[in-house]
Design brief:
Chains A, B: Its cofactor is FAD. The structure is a homodimer of 487-residue chains. Chain A is of the alpha/beta class and 487 residues long. In chain A, 30% of the residues lie in helices and 20% in strands.
Chain lengths: 487, 487
């Protein structure tokens, strides 16, 4: 920190009420709320255009409790059912205080997004996949899979923009337009380097802009929405080593810069080891057969949300992971949904196939025998996969090496990191209102944060849509808090 | 922090060269080294006597590379073999810089301990157990189990005092005597509350002593050896939620006080989610049969070090966990080694037993069938348990609920937390020399730390003896650094 405005400085100073650092979806919603509360708002973005990692994401927002899109698709839902699902799926140890706010406010948040130009088609994508290849606005995110079906009435809550595959760009285009309409000023190519503290209060930042040192002064507050730290290997080694060597889901700028700046002024972090994991397997293919670990053991219902399945594998089971299917299962999946995936091994005999895959003798055959027994009577007694996916597997069998990744139809390079990609979920410790806390648990005056630079609603689990979801929801609250200014 | 020595203060001030906060094994070794380097040393201890959690521990020190005890027991060893083992057992992501120092310096550290009165009998305890019931000074800590046997020549490296079961008290008695002999002054019943910083340098602490505010001034440095944070549920929720609701391995004062004090002056933490886990199962019984999870699946070679087995269960497999044995296996274990454990279920038929345990139909029978096939040919193709433990299991079979815990012969209450107890391994980010680092990676002048208030040699794994081992090893280095004073 520096004593800003020191005599003799010649760097340009830009003043505003609320300064937002980082123009992903958390920054966008914070900026809009602050501007609509009457504050003059400047948003800084390191890249040459707004968007951040949000714009490169799948674009799902986890919303429910009875949104108009859910209703149009014929689903009843409640905040309580949404809470029961998320508490389990994001847990153990989901942040109950933030989660309850998030679920109670979800319909209103949906309406706010729609009012600000975000578009969701009122149609359901009813297939198992990472991302729909359609413009459907609603998708299942594992609500209809065991064990969640035993906890709450299932309703699909994945809301997304009207584009196939990655819908994050559409979301960000809408939010950037909303910010612009609200009078928010954007400075791109501007990298905040340090928070400025005066009399114990954060009053602005120092930054680099087109090779020049510049300063921003915020009368009311600074909101950090700079993203996580998956792009900084030193921070990963210190706090989330499980992501070392894995692929990075980010725009390349998630280097924890906001977290680091806040730590330097006494801010606290929370749950820095938490992270999301995606494994490059095809959910619709695995559900038609099985997913097994290096020893040929099944370990999860393959129709669960792919993030849950990925975490069950990567965090808990020995690699490599194999999708084992038969001819019927493979051919049932339309070619365009195969994303270039092809079986690496095939055999008439399971002992032969298991041996080729380096599994213990008899392991794969025993797993398939137990599966087929269950499939014949229509009940997966091991992992409770929905009966609609159960069918005894018959020779010839094929095995797909999940680490080989996807090819056409998906982003390239996704098979890096052994077919495992991820991002960080830990970060600054904030109140639900977005105040950044010190290690002593008191707010850092003038400093707010939201999105993946903070620890959000997540415990040890993750479901798609909860990152953009909590970033936009708590981004709005942080923007409003900052606009309210010093009390 | 406060501006100490402010005019008008009436609190008593005690001066010294090096102030050590916390009198467990890290504090003891830091104090001895500092005193032997010529510094006047005061050690503060919150409890009414020295010892801390170290004195309540098993007392194992992980030492090797060819100690005189290893030699007397007929084992050759090298720093390289020790490093290869620990790098794997404490990994992935063990701290390679600290680990290399630790292994290279291990024989010298052993000699230093012996020179300072620590006693190790030159005899090997060659049984699978959490803690020997003898005075043997050397024990295996999983070096002779797969996969470690494939990485380095196995040698036992668990060094311990000449008492049955918990040997931590004997270790601490020796170290406390050594500190006293070196002229170290001890203030018990004294709780440090705040670090005192002047001109950017830590120069002492404020403390409470018998209900009075007191101050300590350290000319050369303050060494924090205050232990981990397993006793603070708020810190666990923020940083290591996996330990919430588990039993706590501590003296009840491991509330992260040193970490918290250091954070307040800008210190950084590292790997706060890392933790040790112990499951209350009998290693020697599990090795004679099998350990299975809630679904009746084996998941580890049961002859591995119990800490490895516990982590494999608790972190990665669904509870409850069962030890399944037959009559021969159970009766082979002498009564005094059974620690009061009794089978909860018994049956002639495995399907019946599996059903009683709530496992999927056929699961347990399939696991035992695969195990027996392997046992007959003397090779555990699944998990590579040593052939000496392999014997086909025969009816009647018994199952022991691991969560029921131990009874006579062990500490009471150990079955709390579902039979899972643990402690934290994350903490302050230090250099190998014990300097506490800021978030920016620069030392906090005047501040040093060691033991479980720091992140030590551990990555995601844990082996007994590496906590007292790294605490005494790096405690000595921190004491020496502090005695060297400002550069």
């Amino acid at each position: 920190m520096i004593a800003a405005g020191a005599s003799g400085t010649t760097r340009p100073v830009t003043g505003c009420d609320v300064l937002v650092v980082g123009f992903g979806c958390a920054g966008a919603t914070a900026a809009v709320e602050a501007a609509e509360a009457g504050a003059s708002v400047v948003v800084l973005e390191r890249a040459s255009a707004p968007g951040g990692s949000s714009a490169l994401s799948g674009g799902e927002l986890y919303l429910g409790g009875g949104t108009s899109v859910q209703q149009a698709c014929g689903f009843e839902d409640s905040a309580e059912a949404m809470h029961a699902f998320l508490s389990a799926a994001l847990g153990p140890h989901a942040d109950e205080e933030k989660l309850e706010l998030y679920c109670r406010g979800s319909v209103a948040h949906f309406d706010w997004l729609v009012d600000h130009g975000v578009v969701f088609q009122p149609s359901l994508h009813d297939r198992l996949t990472w991302m729909p290849d359609t413009d459907d606005g609603l998708m299942w995110l594992g609500e209809n899979a065991w064990p969640f079906t035993t906890l709450a009435a299932p309703a699909p809550r994945g809301h997304r923009g009207p584009v196939p595959f990655y819908a994050g760009r559409a979301l960000m285009d809408s939010l950037v337009a909303a910010a612009s309409a609200a009078g928010v000023v954007t400075h791109t190519d501007t990298r905040a380097t340090e928070l400025v503290v005066e009399d114990g209060r954060v009053v602005g930042v120092l930054a680099r802009r087109f090779g020049q040192d510049v300063e921003y002064r915020a009368e009311r507050g600074v909101v950090l929405t700079t993203g996580g730290f998956v792009d900084d290997d030193r921070m990963l080694a210190d706090h989330a080593p499980a992501l070392l060597g894995r692929g990075k889901v980010s725009d390349g700028l998630d280097d924890g810069s906001g977290i680091t700046m806040a730590l330097a002024v006494g801010a606290a972090t929370r749950r820095m080891a938490a992270h999301e994991t995606s494994l490059t397997y095809l959910p619709a293919l695995a559900a038609r057969g099985m997913l097994v670990d290096a020893r040929g053991q099944r370990f999860v219902n393959e129709d669960a949300y792919p993030g849950i399945v990925s975490h069950a594998a990567v965090a808990h089971r020995p690699a490599p992971y194999w999708v084992v299917v038969d001819e019927t299962g493979f051919e049932e999946l339309p070619e365009r949904e195969r994303w270039g995936v092809r079986p690496a091994y095939a055999a008439e005999d399971l002992d032969e196939l298991g041996a080729e895959l380096g599994m213990p003798e008899g392991a794969l055959a025993a797993t398939v025998a137990a599966y087929n027994r269950d499939a014949e009577r229509g009940e997966d007694t091991w992992f409770h996969k929905d009966p609609r996916w159960l069918r005894p597997l018959v020779a010839p069998y094929a095995a797909i090496d999940v680490a080989a990744g996807f090819h056409p139809g998906a982003r390239e390079g996704v098979a890096e990191g052994g077919g495992v990609v991820g991002f960080t979920l830990g970060g600054l410790h904030t109140t639900p209102d977005g105040e950044v806390l010190t290690w002593a648990g008191t707010p850092v005056p003038g400093l707010y944060a939201a999105g993946r630079s903070t620890s959000g609603i997540h415990g040890d689990g993750y479901i798609s849509g909860t990152s953009l979801g909590d970033a936009t929801f708590f981004g709005r609250l942080a923007g409003r808090s900052a606009a309210a200014g010093p009390s």
